[in-house]
């Protein structure tokens, strides 16, 4: 496959960017400021990397207008350099070709329907009453259970499992090893023993969502677990049964939402953060990494929990003092009440 190449002027016109410098500069790839060569394009979005700009060998740099005077060569000015870089770099992404058809080793239930231009790879299993829409790509080893539906343009990479009653919108992308529609963690205690609560709902995923490798989204107990459009789920994320995640929200790796939690639109859930069950998180909330949401959040903003990282000796001293906080607060309150006016 030939490597594509574009001039700076072509990129400026294609992505509505302002050109500074030599428009004939050609680029055939992308890289970081520190490692880019004369035939590559880099970007500057984070001010921490500004010292690297002057010494960068990149042929073209995407940056903000304020940084143009420091650029050593050709520059493309963008309001958001990172977004512009993402769109430009897609021109250099090499995607495998997937010919339409069903691999001979795939097993498709007679009641399932597969679009003629869909690609079904080797060792795929497709269950009863499931439908695969136009342009879908089903990678090797995927298992799609009963009563599932995939709208146009979905991509399931290797070993993705849709257990049952999973409905995907258009252009949903699921990375290897993810499991959607497994039974939620529904239990009832009876006479000292657990009784499983049947999980009779499904999973509904909106258009343009992406679900990372080895993430799990459980089906609902009665109602469905729902991801609205353009939700982005990183690797190793757990979504419990009956959770609802609003449009354009992103959850970073190893985060989790427990059963029946409701997360709003345009939220950002940091890596390792958790949302307890049955809580509600408002739109446009940012939960920082490793935080635990223990009560509903009603207002937009940035929220954190836990203590900052320190050396272990200091942490142990502070941890010992945590146990004394209640007694200290009582003494302070008592002294305040006893003090004369």
UniProtKB/TrEMBL annotation:
GO terms for molecular function: UDP-3-O-[(3R)-3-hydroxyacyl]-glucosamine N-acyltransferase activity. Gene3D superfamilies: 1.20.5.170, Hexapeptide repeat proteins (2.160.10.10), MurE/MurF, N-terminal domain (3.40.1390.10). InterPro entries: Hexapep, LpxD, Trimer_LpxA-like_sf, UDP_GlcNAc_AcTrfase_non-rep. Keywords: Acyltransferase, Lipid A biosynthesis, Lipid biosynthesis, Lipid metabolism, Repeat, Transferase. Pfam families: Hexapep (PF00132), Hexapep_2 (PF14602), LpxD (PF04613). The active site is at residue 241. Its EC number is 2.3.1.191. SUPFAM superfamilies: Trimeric LpxA-like enzymes (SSF51161). It catalyses: a UDP-3-O-[(3R)-3-hydroxyacyl]-alpha-D-glucosamine + a (3R)-hydroxyacyl-[ACP] = a UDP-2-N,3-O-bis[(3R)-3-hydroxyacyl]-alpha-D-glucosamine + holo-[ACP] + H(+). Residues 26-91 form the UDP-3-O-[3-hydroxymyristoyl] glucosamine N-acyltransferase non-repeat region domain. Pathway: Bacterial outer membrane biogenesis; LPS lipid A biosynthesis. The keyword Repeat applies. Homotrimer. Belongs to the transferase hexapeptide repeat family. LpxD subfamily. NCBIfam families: lipid_A_lpxD, PRK00892.1. Catalyzes the N-acylation of UDP-3-O-acylglucosamine using 3-hydroxyacyl-ACP as the acyl donor. Is involved in the biosynthesis of lipid A, a phosphorylated glycolipid that anchors the lipopolysaccharide to the outer membrane of the cell. This is UDP-3-O-acylglucosamine N-acyltransferase.
